[in-house]
Structures are given as structure tokens and as C-alpha cells.
Amino acid sequence: MATLLLLLLIFLPPFDAKGRVQPVVSVTVTPDTLLVGDRIHCTITVQHAEGEAATLEGVNAVAIKPFELISSKRHSSAAPPGQAQDIFELQLALFGAGRQPLPPFTVLLRNSSGGVTSRVSYKPSSSVFVRELTDASMRDLRPIKPPLTPPIPYLLLMPVLLGAFGVGGVVLLLLFLLKRTVRNSAEKVDSSQVAQRKLRKLGSSLSAGMPPHECYEELSNIMRSFLETHYRISALEAVTQEIERDLKKLGVAGFESIMNLLKQADLVKFADSRPDVEESRQSLDKASEVIRSTRKSPPPAE
Amino acid sequence: MQHAVELEELGSQIIEASRFLEQAEEQLAHRVVGQLEVIRRVFIAMLVNGHILLEGVPGLAKTLIISTVASVMNLKFQRIQFTPDMLPADLIGTMIYNPKEMEFYPRKGPVFANVILADEINRSPAKVQSALLEAMQERQVTIGSQTFPLQEPFMVLATQNPIEHEGTYLLPEAQVDRFMMKVIVDYPSYEEELEIMLRSATTASKPPITTVVEAGDIFRARALIDRIYVDPRVQRYIIDLVVATRNPGLYGMAELAAMIEYGASPRASIFLLLAAKAHAFLQHRPYITPEDVKAIAYDTLRHRIRPGYEAEADNLKSDDIIRQILQNVQVP
Predict the structure, then answer these.
(1) ipTM here
(2) pLDDT tens across A36-87, in order?
(3) Contact B288 A270 (CB under 8 A)
């Protein structure tokens, strides 16, 4: 229960022996169950004769342990004719454990000149239950949040990251340049050497009885492969006219001889021309000479 | 050796027989500035009985080229402006009632000519396009119950405007396929345009065109073109190119497969060979080389390849696809 009304209504005889009106005291407290250190709200209502004022005694910090007075407030409210009503709002903190009875207190009634006209001791019969602080109750009280992780200082890391990228980029560039240099030098040597080796092999095949028209077809392939690797033009997928255009653009040495060889091979391949063995051998010699001459004049720089 | 002699002889005959084309080119140069490639494509189509689809923005002398070719070659020329309200009868002709003799007789339409300029073919509805394309294919027209063969040589040059599509009827692929070539007519060069301006900015009438070619010259050329030697290597190269448009993965162009919705039909192989032969004829050669095939590959294939969705997203046209194919298929 959020709110518990503890009512203790003491019916005092409305008049004492001297014919004066007796004060009527009532106490309410909320909540009835709480944790150690929590606060309760206690309301004490005193109804008394008109012309008197009520004060409380015994609600200081020492007297009401384990309660501790946090604040108190007094105000008056309307009452039946000939009577007055004072209300005391007390806020008390609790530091004990288990069931705690409310502390006793004394109501003093004073007349207009400040003299005590009546003194009523009062012991409330109600109590509150105070729960001890355990791990479970602590979690109920304040759920434990996960530990905070500090934010990553990206701005501070940026120069480090940029530096790392920069170093990586330079290393890759150096590797690429090194690889290209190695490959270029290898190709320069290889393309002409490979072509010469293939031409020698083709010459042997011709001597062994290879038909001249097949020899020309192979010669055309060797020349195109050589031009493709040596001058970096797509000679294998290009027609003779396209190769002619590319070589002219590059200003290749021995251009005329290369084109003559390719055109002669085209005649054999596409016009069904039938050269004899001697013509084929001459063409092979010519091709070998052309390839040898390109070694003296390196391919134009890209 | 015998074959080499035959080819040599054929070569000299070709030189002799192709002279009329040089004369025609000379005459055309009096009337048309530049556009030499377009003119040569028209000659190629004429030599192998093909039809051409010309595409270009207005004002690039498409009509002038065609009408002048017809005049130079002493051929009957008809220009048909295709419009949305046109009917097949406006093209092929219809049966007319003769009240005097109380019978119907056929009135032949404008399709009965040697050179037909189908201007803005995509402006007419499908039934008119079909009527023309059927005439192109069958080379005969049926009016009523009578069938009339079309005159030879018979060539249709259809034009369409690539930038204005509102109110047009797109030619279906099956019908576009019947055109041997689709030629793109481009703007003239700076110097050519200057020449065009100086020649045309006059009120004087144009000098008359001299007829230098007879239909017989064309038939003789056709007979020689049929004899042009095609090596099996070139035959295979043609097939390689056409197959590569359908299955580029076979030629190491797997990435191109997604770019092509559909490739060229077997008709492309036929037209590629025919056009390559005519190209070799124009070069005075009695045999075909892969260079002849490459020279006419764009015009013969561009309307037979439909770029796919991915190609359109990458702004790739059919010409770009053909370029990649030509660069990757090995030449014999």
C-alpha cells in the first residue's frame, strides 16, 4: 500500500474538570514501508479551544532516534465554532531497520500571553516497516547501469590514420613501379627472343615438310604476338590495316618490312595464295631480320 | 595456282566493273558535300540487294543523298512520307473500279519503283510498316487477287529521327532485322558545313545530275560479287562475331553477357558476309579480309543487338557493345 493511514483518534472528554476544552490529537503517516534512509511524511492534527495555540515538544533529532527531523511546518485550518485546529507537517528520515514505532511527543497549549495552559503527552500506536539495504534492494532502488566507455578520439587519431595510409600508399606505389620495371625489362628481352625462337622452330618445321601456306599463317601469328608484347598494341585482335595505323602512329623502325610481311601473309590466308617453300623461307629470314632490328631501336616510350 | 589465276582475273574484272561507282561518286560530289561513308553504305546495299535504315537528325541530307543516288543511277525513285493516317493501300496500291468497263483494275502504289525513300517510317502505324517490310522481304506485292513482282534493282532506304519520339510507332525488332544495315548519319565536319553553306546559299537552280549508271551495271557487279572468294577463316570470323553478340562469355567477355538482352540473328551472319563482299568489291579486291568484316560490322549489327537494362544504366549503346566484341574476338 502506497499510503497508509494510521489513525489514532483519542477521544478525550471535551471538557476537563475545570470546564476547559481538552485538545484532540490525531496522527497520520505515509508510507508505511520504506528503505533505510528514506523519508516519511507525518501529519499531526491538534484540535483545541479557541484563543490557544498548540506547539509540539519532543520531535527534535536526539529525542526521536532512529527518526531524524528533516523539516516541520505548522499551519491552522478551519474548525467548529469555539474551537481551533493546528496542523503540523513533519518530514522525517529513518535510519533504523525492521518495524519502528512512531516517536512519542507532547502537545503544549498556550494562551495569548504565552503561558502554558495545558500539556498532553501522546504516544502514537502506529509504526512503519524499514527494509534493510541489500544487493537486491539496491538494484530495485537504482538499477546498475553498464560502465561507460570513453569516446574514441577520432580527431586525434586522424593524423595517425592518414599517416598510416600515406606510408601504405607509398609502399604500394614503389612495389608497382618496381614490378613494372622488372616486367618491362623482362618483356623487352623476352618478346624478341621468344619470337626468334618461334621463327627458328617454324623454319625447322618448313624443312621437315610443313606446307608453305601453313607456315605463313604461323608467321603471321608470331609477328602479331611480337608486335602486341613489344609495342603494346592489340595486334591479335586487330586487322592488318589497324596494325598499320598503330605502327605508323608509333613511328616504328622497319615499318615497311613488317607491313609487307603481314600483307603477304594476308594474301596466303584470305586470298588462297600458294607461295612456294623458297618464298616462305625468305619471308622467315625477313621476319627474323625485322625482329632483330627492333632490338637495336627500343619501343617508343609510353 | 589455277585458283590464284582465277582470283587475279576476277580482280581485274572487279576493277573494270566497279568503275561506274567511282563515276557515280564523282557525280554525287557535285550535289552532296561529305557523307562519303553513308554514300558507300548505300552502294553496298545496292550491290547486294539489301535495304538500309538511315538514322539521323533532320537536315543532314539523307533525302538528298538517296534521291541523287537514284538520279545518278537512272533508277525510278519514289519518296513516301510516312504519316500516322497512312494506309497500306497508299503504299502498295489498290483495286479501282472502272465504271466504263464495269470492272476493277489494280492501281499500283508508289512502292513500284527502284529506289524507295520511306521517310520517317516510324511515323506510320504498324500495318503500313508491315506492308512495306513484306514488300522488302518478298520483293512482290499482291493487290486484290493479283501478285506483281517489284522492279529490280529494288532498294528501300527508310529514315527515322532519333530525337523525336512523340507520335511515332517504334519498329518491331523482327522488322528492323530485315534491314541489312542501320546507318547513322552524323553532322558534317566544320569544313564540310562551310562548303554546304556556300553551295546552298544561292537562288540559282542546282546543276542537273548526269546519269552515269544503268541498272545493267549493277547486275554485272552483283554477278562478280557472288564470285568473290571468302576464305573459311573469314567465314568463321563472321560467325564468331555474331555468336559473340549472343554468348560473349565464350569469347572471354563474360561481363558483357548481362549487358545484352538479345544478340544478332543468323540473318546478321548472312548480311555481314554479303556486305563484306560488297565492301571488298569497292576496294577492288577479289577476296574478303577481316578488315572488310570489321568495316561494316557496326552498320550490320547495331540494330540487331538490344542492350539490356544494365547497359542502359551504364549508358552503353549497341555500338559500344560491338566495339568491345571487335576488340576481343581474335582476328584470323
Answers:
(1) 0.73
(2) 888 899 999 998 888 888 888 877 654 577 888 888 888 888 888 888 889 9
(3) yes
Tell me which residue of B117, B121, B109 sits closest to B155, measured CA to CA.
B117
Q: Rounded to an integer, what distance in angstroms lies between the CA atom of residue A262 and that of residue A242?
A: 12
User: Is there a contact between A100 and A132 (Cβ–Cβ < 8 Å)?
Assistant: no
Alpha carbon of A263: minimum distance to chain B alpha carbons (Å): 11
Residue A197 and residue A266 in one domain: yes
**Chain A neighbors of B252, CB-CB under 8 A:** none
Pick the CATH number of B2-215 from 3.40.50.10330, 3.40.50.300, 3.20.20.150, 3.30.70.260: 3.40.50.300
- Residue A146 located in a structural domain: no
B60, three cell numbers: 543532314
Q: Which CATH superfamily is domain B229-328 in?
A: Magnesium chelatase subunit I, C-Terminal domain (1.10.8.80)
Domain range list for chain B: 2-215, 229-328
For residues B39 and A118, give the distance between their C-alpha atoms in angstroms, rounded to a whole number: 133
Structural domain count of chain A: 2
Contact with chain A for residue B162, Cβ under 8 A: no
Q: Are residues A74 and A131 in the same domain?
A: yes
Q: What span, in angstroms and rounded, lies between the C-alpha atoms of B49 and B79?
A: 19
Provide the residue range defining the domain that includes A48.
Answer: 24-138
pLDDT digits (tens, 9 = 90+) for A251-290: 877 788 888 888 888 888 888 888 888 888 888 888 888 8
Establish if B288 touches chain A: CB-CB under 8 angstroms: yes
Mark whether A276 and A190 lie in a shared domain: yes
Q: Measure CA B196 to chain center.
A: 24
Whether the per-residue pLDDT at B270 is higher than 70: the answer is yes
Instruction: Give A162-220 pLDDT, tens digit per residue.
Output: 999 999 999 999 999 998 888 776 655 567 888 888 888 888 888 888 888 888 888 88
Mean predicted confidence (pLDDT) in B262-273: 90
Taking the C-alpha atoms of residue B19 and residue B7, their distance in angstroms, rounded to an integer, is 18
